[in-house]
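ok here's the first one, seq then struct tokens
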Amino acid sequence: MQPQDVAPRPAPSADSPVVGVEQAEAALVEHYPRLARLAYLVLPPGPGRSRRVLTAHALTQRALPRGTTEAPVIPAQPAGRETDPGYACLRLRVLRAALVAGVPLWRRMRLGRPPLPPVLPQVWGLRLFPRSGGADELGLDQRLSALSGPGRAAYALRGLEKLPDGDVREVLAAAGVTDVDAALREADTVPGQYALLDSPEFDPCSLVARPTDLMRRRQHGKAALAAGAALVVCGVLAALPAAGRGPDGPAAPPYARNASAQAALDPGRLVRVSPAAWRTSPRTDFSVWPARGDLTGDRALLRRALAVWARPGETVRVSATPGTPAGGPPGPPQLLYAGNVDNARVVILYDGLRLVRYAEPLDGARGAALDFARTDNARRAEAGAVVLGRADGNVRYLTAPWVTRAAERDLTEPGSGAMDLTLTDGMTSPLASPVRHDGACASWNVLQLTDGSTTRLLTDLGELVPARLTTGRPGSVREASGAEALRTWAPYACSLGAVRGQGVRSVNAWEFAEQPLPDASGSAAWVCTRAETWRGRGARALAQFRAPGGRYGAVAAKGTGVTACGARDPHVLAGVLWKSEADDWYLLAAGSDDTASVRVTGGVSASADGNLLTARAKRGARAEVKGTLEDGRKVGALR
């Protein structure tokens, strides 16, 4: 798109409300994240995401007027920030500044607006950029980058500010856009994925910090030091006879003395495993995966992947599961895949501790992605698949060489069958991902893999490695693929969304108690779901209660970093307030089957032998639940 001109700002209307500095400052403090996000969306993507973040903050901070100013007339909208003249004034100033920042220098000079470089904020030695989103956010960012500044502004005002087109026209015209119709037509070319504008991908206030190019900084520091020393030496030598001068030795290349680093960046030294190695190896994990894909011989692609892994640039989107180091490879890694996946060239590498996925657009556009996932001590059950790519709400996997069949199954419908997926050199056909940005959960699709006589279920949680699903008592869990296991998981499938992006290795569902209801309407089920992580810390446990006839379970208690419901401590205790059909309230508490007694104190006082307790209660009552195990140990409710 050709950039549009931004006209000089129009004179304010006589009916415009007056905004004082104090009112504008209050609006800036209250709505700063929103204004910074608007500036980030409108700014051109060219300088890189780190520069774009700092510019968005600079423009937002400079939007505060120096004295009393006049705000534009505010369109009639629901009550909120849109009816605040201070916010409307700042939004217009931020929008105008962001549009001018995207105009070429010679046009700014023609409009009488010379560039004013922001003094603050400045960051040295770090690159700051928003947290990476998913494939949908990446696609939207690439589409918006193809628009002009006014086009991006029109899209942001529609989606972020929820303005109708009539109000968008007024704001754009007030910001100095000369051809508002063209800006709206440009915005129409991008699908209306307005909910994605609220994601962390476009939030310049929620940032990830990475160092700048350390090797280049070191080179520049050495060069500056050498230049300073040379000036001193030259000053001294200028007074000496010509015979006293000697040659200067050149500095060594960055990797000239580091053989390991050189080897790690050489595509010719990538480890490639035989396709039959897994059949005789004592280990069956990612280390015995062969190299697959139609681009395993593309040395240029492999070189780019290795170089970006060692030193990702400003335009590279880097993501890592919690607890995963994001540094370069310690030596030549193993190649698992290199090929075309949907609209990207993808390379999957493995260094014994981490899986690394490098992806670049097929059309050569900017915006490569680098994803890290920790996979140390992976076993056959957890090394069954890796995410190759996500597009249009679907996900493709690369499966292990021992997988003979792949299928898609809806975990919320235990009675429905599995739909077979095509396997081509280990790559599955696309299946619908359960990961959604709007939080809705009408279904939860999982990957079903068959390995000889064993069938396993894996679920996508928005990371590189899908999580394994199991059922049963901790310490003796089994695969969640049988009929009984599917019925156990069905009401609690949607709770998997609570552990998305947490570096989850496996999730187990354990039905630890069944409790008859006091109104004789049936028995309720108590289930504990526990998500284990690859890093070993940060496990999450949810105690969930489901009354008879309920489609989904309700979370009664939860804990993070706890041992309850795990192999180290296969015990759990939880309570919930429940209302009968006769509008009577009860406190129901349940523990695992080795609980000898349960007692509640506080808003409800009661005790019972065994692992179940039922007591009359009042609505909103708060009580503390405690229990005693058969071995005499005291336990508290999950928290």
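and now the second one, same deal
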Amino acid sequence: MTETPHLVRAPAAAEDTPGRRTAEEQALHRAARLEALLGDPLDPGNPHGTAALIAADDLRRPPAATERLLAEAGLAAEFVPAEFGGRLTRADLLVKVLRPVFRRDVALGFGFGITGLFATAAVWAAGSTRQREETAAVLLGGGRASIVHHELAHANAILRDEFTATSRPGGGYALSGRKDVIMNAARSDAYVVYARTAPERGPRSHSVLLLRPDDLPADGLRRLPRVHTSGMRGGLFSGLEFTGCPVPGDALVGRPGEGVALALRTFQVNRCLIPGVAVAAAGTVLHSAVRAASAGRSAPVARRRHKPLAGVFADLLACDSMATVALRSLSLLPERAHLPAAAVKYVVPDLLREDLEELASVLGAHGYEHGSPQFGTLEKLVRDLPVAGLGHAGTAACQAVIVPQLRTLAERSWFTTGEPPAALFRPGGRLPDLDYRLLGIAGAEDFLPASLVASASRLAGGGAAGTHIAALGVLAGGFVDELHTLRAICADLPTGRAALSDPAVVVLGDRYAMILAAAAVLGIWENQDGTDPFLSDPAWAVLALTRLAGRLGIAVPELPPGCLEHVLDELVRRYRAGLSYDLDATPLRP
């Protein structure tokens, strides 16, 4: 980069008075403003509604009018740290702001901006002050940034191929290679390239380069034509080809050979953000399913639909519990957040995929009403969700974090590590700001299993306090027993990456991640302050843990009387009141 642009400060959101609100209240206020600006998604005349977004998707084009609206609303400021003029303070608050966008269209949420945060994370983590200021100015000025991934094992189109940067005698690098599928490549003002700088494999094989295409010679960079993927559409993907392109030495982000370490550190945030916003998208499909199950009936919901609808609602609350805990751990316990970050990205997409299959059975023929504002979101989300999570490659990357550490965790952490602070679970609490530089990439302090054990112990020692709490205690004890079993098995595992070669060992990673999901549910329920009577009642947690336990094959008791009905009643109440199906229960109607 040749010149430091003027650093633009993000305008204050309309009617926002930060001094009078907590950080969480400010984030929810900005989310409510977006809901109002985007309007009623079911209105066929709304240029930002479901019908218009699906129409743009059919044309394989970004929804230009809605992107302009989001740009004018200053959404890009949410991806820039506050110290550089933006509004980014904590990852859990960012999810709250982004959910109105993702409820309407996952591709819109990715195409407009969140991938810009994925790209610039390395700059916030290791860039020079000049690099961070210039990058902030690009985003705040309406520009975009693209992440150019290095090639990974099990690569899909997005993660296939990579660029090579070789040192030039006079300084800097010569960048070469071709990559055909990069989100927003055709319209980005900055590229963050994870380029191979060493021929051998290893932790120092790649470096990160921050590039401005306008500063590069025309004969060194060629933008490739738009490509259409089988999943997320909207005209978002195209490619780049570098041919011996000279890159100045000051384009290097961090130190030479630091690319893999930066990826391991910064991708933790991405892994937490994606499940958090995906819950909102799945909530839209649940809303459609409740509509289908209750339309034309005097009773609220057909009885045969009670179990799948209440069950999916409980799953969404479980997914949001896990995402919330992982997101908050990035600020509160950054040196130990790598395990829940990998686990939430591992578990939530699979749970949501299963939930969409259940909801498809409820929607029936309505699920095939392509373009329908009321029912057309299922088909699109089924396509978008795998791309959002990077498919099997994303799952394999999370397995590569969890599985090699299982033996160490079993020997050094489980049943010995102390319980995490209650602020990890408690809504509305004050947390430190997210600092990418503090995020750790290894360590044996596994705090969520410790939280599970502590929650189960308190439930077991609480005495008789109602059938729902008694059932919750039994379920919590079942997950603790599962952790004991897992510890005994993992004590004999090979250490390190050798464990990844055995499919039976990889399956243990699945079981571990589900245990963390159960711990998050218990922690969120246990730390309710009574403000939300539904979340303070144990019924939703009982149903959520029952479904998680069933997926693990843990023997569970029958649901206590009234449990399913209580969860269903809340689902119907939120449907009628126009409230979201996550932990916040925010208004959906503008």
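notes on #2: Residues 1-18 have pLDDT under 50 and may be disordered. Strands lie at 145-148, 164-167, 173-183, 190-196, 206-211, 221-223, 237-247, 252-253.
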